[in-house]
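User: Some background: our group keeps a shared notebook of sequences we're curious about, and every so often someone picks one and asks for a predicted structure to add to the entry. Today it's my turn. The entry only has the sequence so far, pasted here. Could you supply the structure so I can complete it?
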Amino acid sequence: VVDYAPLGTTITKWTATAKGLTLPSAYGTGNLEQTIPLFPGEAEVNYEVTVKTSNGLTRSPYAGKPLVNTVTVTSSTADLTTVGDNKTTQALPAEIRNDLSIAKTSDKLTPTGIDTPYDYTILVKNNGFFTSNEVVVKDILPAELAYISHVTAAGSANYSKENNTVLWSIPTLQPGAVAIIIIKVKAIKPGVISNTATILAKELDPIMDNNTATDLKEIFALDTRPNVITPNGDGKNDTWVVDGLELYPENTLAIYNRWGNEVYHSTGYKNDWSGNGLKEGTYYYLLKVKDPKGVWMVTKGYITLLRNN
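Assistant: Of course. Here's the predicted structure to add to the notebook entry:
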């Protein structure tokens, strides 16, 4: 009994189950070449052969084509009938499988505020052994984001205002190849924005865990809480801090007492007012900042200064 591996493959193992006879071996690796010394009448043997495609098959003339496997059985004893003596050939349909992955990132080091443009970088890669065809990347922008532009050197991308979605199409992606798209957006609301992109292709991808990528981006806004300061040197609320003010370097701050007299003024406030020289009580602030559009915004409220905490 002879069974050689199809071209471009190797036989990793074979097993045999016999009925009515004893085999020299019931298992093996590599090509099947077994001689059975005595094969009684009515006896039978079933072989199960496992083959594996090699990594190089993607670049060979056999890539994407059916695997043809031929089994031959011969005997030194004369055969009284020719029924079933022909070589048995079975063609197995080929199913190309690939592994695509996607990664999505944004700048986490630079504080970003409302209406400030920033980029998402999406990188896709073909980790498989075959060319991926009709690759599609979909990025549905959440409601907190406004689309500005995109740029890519691979394939083409389009933005749909109707569903706030960027659809990136890549005709082919070769094994090991990567492609990048950069999407520029701006936030219209503060908070942590979750943005997810997905990738699919024509070929089957058995590893779906890396076909989705999510980026979390924090968008800052001015926050004057808490509005109580206790400048006693314990490191807690010793100065009046405005969270997010670093996003607005052009700013002015004026603080007034309850009679409307200005007791403090700063251009380019550095979160360092401690009420030095002032008595306990309630003070009122007027904070002006220039946003990325060049528009001055005004925030006002009160600050409670306590000395005995």
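Suggested note for the entry: The chain has three domains: 2-92, 100-220, 228-305. Confidence is low (pLDDT under 50) at residues 56-60.
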